[in-house]
Write a structure and sequence with these properties.
Largest sheet: none
Shape: elongated
Strand content: under 5%
Radius of gyration: 24 Å
Helix content: 55-70%
Distance between the termini: 25 Å
Number of domains: 3
Number of strands: 0
Oligomer: single chain
Length: 258
């Protein structure tokens, strides 16, 4: 089975966060959190600047935790809700009030980020891609038996990411393990390079060639609707793979019942 595939998927998202553009967003999130943390008066000032934004939203940033990369998703979503208030507060009100805070390095970094039209675009991007990963991890964090669904879910997350930057025609007719052979760098367009590290990491790590995971999909209830002559071969292959932990009489029973 290999290493924990939940960690592989989680680490793939973390790989993408190492890109300079997204590292700057992480810095921005941390600067905002530190700016208001333990400073009730600053939160009050932001509330005044916010006007029509929900006070509960404005006064409570969601902290990004560096070793839990997907925590960046709720942090980014909260920042997007606060964004009009943040721009009003940092770019207009603090300057107009001639606050001494505008002389600090942290303020200068926050101002620079808020003045850039790329900042909200990158934040939206992190939320969009992060939810692909988050949905995958949430689905598998269950007490139910999901191993028969795992291979298909791995294939789906890879395809979802691929379809963000290559055409569906590039993958049409390809089996799941064939996705590993797609020459990503040769077909990438410049605007989509930010997807490359994340997807390349996944393609190197996810076990799409794992025959056990592939074969065990036959246990999915949907597969039982297929004619027996189409699935019995897979069941036989699966019992052989599990011969070290399933007794022969149990294998015979499984085949008879199938």
């Amino acid at each position: 089975m290999g290493t924990c595939n939940l960690h592989i998927v989680h680490n793939a998202f973390g790989e993408g966060l190492q890109l300079d553009a997204f590292a700057s967003i992480i810095d921005f999130l941390e600067d905002i959190d530190i700016w208001f943390k333990k400073y009730p008066s600053r939160k009050e000032d932001l509330t005044i600047s916010s006007q029509y934004v929900d006070e509960e939203v404005v006064c409570n940033t969601l902290r990004y935790v560096s070793n839990r990369w997907l925590s960046v998703v709720p942090s980014c979503e909260r920042i997007l809700k606060m964004y009009p208030a943040l721009k009003q507060h940092f770019l207009i009100d603090l300057v107009g009030n001639k606050s001494d805070l505008i002389k600090t390095e942290r303020y200068k970094r926050i101002r620079s980020a808020l003045k850039s039209h790329l900042t909200p675009a990158y934040i939206h991007f992190l939320v969009s891609v992060g939810k692909i990963f988050d949905n995958f991890l949430r689905f598998l964090q269950s007490d139910k038996t999901l191993i028969h669904l795992f291979y298909d879910e791995m294939s789906n997350i890879v395809r979802k990411l691929l379809f963000r930057f290559i055409s569906m025609e590039s993958c049409r007719g390809k089996k799941d393990e064939d996705l590993l052979e797609i020459p990503l760098k040769s077909i990438m367009v410049k605007e989509n390079l930010k997807y490359l590290d994340v997807t390349s990491y996944l393609l190197k790590k996810v076990p799409l060639k794992n025959q056990l995971l592939k074969s065990i999909q036959v246990l999915h209830p949907v597969a039982r609707k297929e004619p027996v002559n189409k699935t019995i071969g897979v069941v036989k292959r699966l019992t052989k793979m599990l011969s070290h932990c399933v007794q022969q009489k149990e294998m015979d029973k499984i085949l008879d019942e199938w």
